[in-house]
């Protein structure tokens, strides 16, 4: 995670960002700290990387890389405003985890557009394209990580990253908002995950799919109450945290947590 010490909305690179409404950075920091404490209280180890003043979106740490089996596929950001974040994340992996890290040649925004299901079909990566990550990055990720990658096309600009439209609930199960995907990609998802928890537009707009799950606890923002009840009905325990200030940048729980997969 990376604290929102320098978080602002001074440019708009997704439909949620409105540069005319000032960000309350003190509130953003408080909300972020509660999320970090929630994760540690649940028994998870949280590493924190330093925020850089010139990189206001760095709080969305999930976009910096995607790791599977202790191998790191580093991001190459779509927009110049975020380009500098990639090297900060690579530095973290080099020093803290010592996992081999390769920066992508193709544009890819890390876990923003990649999800991993270790127990689905022996270990499967789901990857989004359409707004940020290039399809070529999906091939690159497969070659670097050695796991099958299923490409899914995102079609709604409000859900510009895979992690705004789909999430892993545990090692084998997903939840997603079908209409965020092309018809063909919806068919692919139905075939591979017939038992998925289906979310609706209200859930997606509340960033209810932008969740982090440890397989038992599903951490999601307070606005996504209905989504919380949906996952509860499927045997998970929803844990809500207030993260409204970070929604101004177009992200929520998942966007601010990069998961380390050994
Ligand atoms: N303002 C950031 C951007 O548009 C938000 C990134 C949200 N992160 C995510 N994983 N969806 O790039």
UniProtKB/TrEMBL annotation:
<protein>
    <submittedName>
        <fullName>Amidinotransferase</fullName>
    </submittedName>
</protein>
<dbReference type="Pfam" id="PF19420">
    <property type="entry name" value="DDAH_eukar"/>
</dbReference>
